[in-house]
Design a protein that fits this description.
This protein has 3 helices and 4 strands, in the order H-H-E-E-E-E-H. The strands form 2 sheets. It has a two-stranded antiparallel sheet with strand order 1-2. Strand 1 and strand 2 form a beta hairpin. Helix 1 packs antiparallel against helix 2. Keywords: Cell membrane, Membrane, Transmembrane, Transmembrane helix. This is Zinc-ribbon containing domain-containing protein.
């Protein structure tokens, strides 16, 4: 289950990618109305799906822009597990590479709680 989690910046990028692919899929499905010559219904269907696909692509662009703006204002830290530099967004986040939970706030740091329980 740990491998399914990702850093917050990567999750925003994933949603941007899904919106891009969904928009292209909608446009391709809409094109079927013209390619298979379904008459007036096919042309209307193509128009509707092209508009929906374009809206999805614009939403994807907005999500990518938002993720990029957030990425410029994040804190860059070195991951204690893999040693690579990663970005933390918010109080807790995951390493972009090894998915380790990271935190700048000691109250939210899971490794500090685990060490406190072990040490007594």
């Amino acid at each position: 289950m740990l491998r399914l989690k990702s850093s917050k910046v990567n999750e925003f990028r994933l949603w941007g990618l899904l919106l891009t692919l969904g928009g292209m899929l909608l446009m391709i499905v809409g094109l079927a109305g013209i390619v298979f010559n379904w008459g007036t219904f096919g042309k209307i269907m193509a128009g509707v799906f092209m508009v929906l696909g374009a809206i999805s692509m614009l939403a994807s662009m907005a999500v990518y822009f938002w993720a990029g703006m957030m990425s410029t204002s994040t804190t860059v830290v070195e991951c204690p597990e893999c040693g690579k530099q990663t970005k933390i967004l918010g109080k807790t986040d995951r390493c972009m590479f090894c998915k380790t939970i990271l935190s700048l706030d000691p109250a939210h740091d899971p490794t500090a709680k685990a060490n406190a329980n072990v040490n007594g």
